[in-house]
């Protein structure tokens, strides 16, 4: 905001272009942009995957300036043409990883590594995953709430058919995650001219729903899909707020669990492509349960609170802390696995507004979905054989299309 040119009492809010002084005024064929604490522990960094030139990874210096670390970190990809991008922690080491699609070029799944104080990203994309396609939006989310993130490529049927693709990224204790291709079912849309795509939970059942837009070269309707696997899994949706009550874009949410360690989500101030993701940290937990949640805001404020067993399968609102903790110092390039809690402020459980979907009746309950909703057929719990981590066997379809009018009660 430009305070001198603004007059908020008269409704004038003027913005001033500070790109040059911030160090981000670089020539670009800009496509995807994603904002969050990628290298910093709390401050917002910026990743841009670009066309006809190198990508940018602007590291926030904490003083209003940024330094482009794309080349030194190994994510400049200068000869490819980026499109959709998403931030996630695929190997659950606490470091933010980057996935993006290149237009008819190799798609990238970059894990953030660090050695000797330097950050490097390493592309672990398998041949199937990296296979070039006319990609638009890329989404990273846990569609079946089994703890493992899926990556969805919304491909654009450009001059011929181009089916959408879905992969599950299976975290392993020792070694890189396995990448398993799944059958996206109705969301395959081989003739779809997919452009934007987002996930959210339309009906409050704790299962993410997928919305795809189409167009550009031919009008096609929106499509809406719901998952058909994992209904019995636990989940938690966390919504951090700014001091003004807005969605806290750029916040980092870490959920500590009883059995599976820490899970990280970024409330992404960008992502996707021709769209933007919901400002909600959605955690699929399988049979595990959360024990506590910790939120770090872009200004370094931190808050944590316990999560009771009775709060599982609900939406937790996390307000901005009210006290006057000092701001956190700018982070070093090497990000610690779990941020220090030295500046944290323990939130009481009571001030947090708890929206429990089962209590409010806002949507079909997780357990009653099959019995109460005429629009959905009850799905069995996954048979163990379907959980085989076999990269060569896409064994089940993941999405069923729905008519939007039937979706909401
Ligand atoms: Ca590029
Ligand atoms: Ca990681
Ligand atoms: Ca999953
Ligand atoms: Ca849903």
Defining traits:
single chain, 409 residues, mainly beta, Tachylectin-2, Chain A, 5-stranded mixed beta sheet, 4-stranded antiparallel beta sheet, 6 helices, binds calcium ion
Protein described:
The protein is mainly β. The protein has a single domain, classed as 5 Propeller (Tachylectin-2, Chain A), CATH 2.115.10. It has helices at 19-22, 70-73, 127-130, 357-360, 369-372, 404-407; strands spanning 29-36, 45-51, 56-60, 66-68, 82-88, 97-102, 108-115, 118-123, 135-141, 149-155, 165-170, 178-182, 194-200, 209-214, 223-227, 234-240, 252-257, 262-266, 281-286, 290-296, 302-306, 315-318, 344-346, 354-355, 399-402. The strands form 6 sheets. The chain has a 5-stranded mixed β-sheet with strand order 18-17-20-21-23, with no helix packed on it. Strand 6 and strand 7 form a beta hairpin. The chain is globular, with a radius of gyration of 21 Å. Mean pLDDT is 83; it is low at 325-395 and 404-409.
């Amino acid at each position: 905001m430009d305070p001198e040119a603004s007059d908020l009492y008269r409704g004038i809010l003027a913005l001033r272009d500070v790109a040059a002084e911030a160090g981000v005024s670089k020539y670009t064929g800009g496509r995807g942009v994603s904002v969050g604490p990628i290298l910093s522990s709390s401050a917002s960094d910026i990743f841009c995957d670009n066309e006809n030139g190198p990508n940018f990874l602007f590291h926030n210096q904490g003083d209003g300036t940024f330094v482009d670390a794309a080349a030194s970190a190994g994510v400049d990809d200068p000869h490819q043409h980026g499109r959709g991008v998403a931030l996630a922690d695929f190997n659950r080491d606490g470091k933010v990883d980057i996935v993006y699609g290149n237009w008819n070029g190799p798609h990238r799944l970059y894990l953030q590594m660090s050695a000797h104080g330097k950050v490097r990203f390493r592309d672990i994309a398998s041949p199937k995953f990296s296979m070039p396609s006319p990609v638009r939006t890329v989404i990273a989310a846990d569609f079946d709430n089994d703890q493992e993130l899926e990556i969805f490529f919304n491909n654009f049927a450009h001059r011929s058919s181009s089916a959408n693709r879905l992969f599950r990224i299976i975290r392993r204790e020792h070694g890189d995650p396995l990448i398993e291709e799944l059958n996206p079912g109705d969301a395959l849309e081989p003739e779809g001219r997919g452009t934007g795509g987002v996930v959210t939970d339309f009906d409050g059942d704790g299962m993410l729903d997928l919305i795809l837009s189409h167009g550009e070269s031919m009008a096609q309707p929106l499509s809406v899909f719901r998952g058909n696997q994992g209904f019995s899994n636990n989940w938690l949706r966390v919504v951090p707020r700014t001091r003004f009550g807005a969605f806290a874009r750029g916040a980092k949410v870490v959920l500590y669990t009883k059995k599976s360690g820490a899970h990280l989500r970024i409330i992404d101030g960008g992502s996707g492509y021709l769209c933007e993701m919901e400002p909600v940290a959605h955690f699929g937990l399988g049979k595990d349960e959360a024990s506590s949640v910790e939120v770090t805001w872009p200004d370094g404020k931190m808050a944590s609170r316990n999560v009771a067993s009775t709060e599982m399968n609900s939406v937790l609102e996390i307000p901005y802390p009210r006290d006057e903790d000092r701001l956190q110092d700018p982070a070093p390039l090497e990000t610690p696995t779990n941020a220090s809690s030295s500046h944290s402020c323990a939130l009481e459980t009571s001030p947090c507004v708890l929206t429990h979907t089962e209590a409010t009746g806002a949507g079909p309950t997780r357990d009653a979905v099959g019995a109460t909703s005429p629009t959905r057929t009850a799905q069995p719990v996954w048979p163990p054989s379907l959980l085989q981590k076999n990269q060569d066997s896409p064994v089940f379809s993941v999405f069923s299309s729905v008519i939007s009018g039937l979706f909401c009660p």
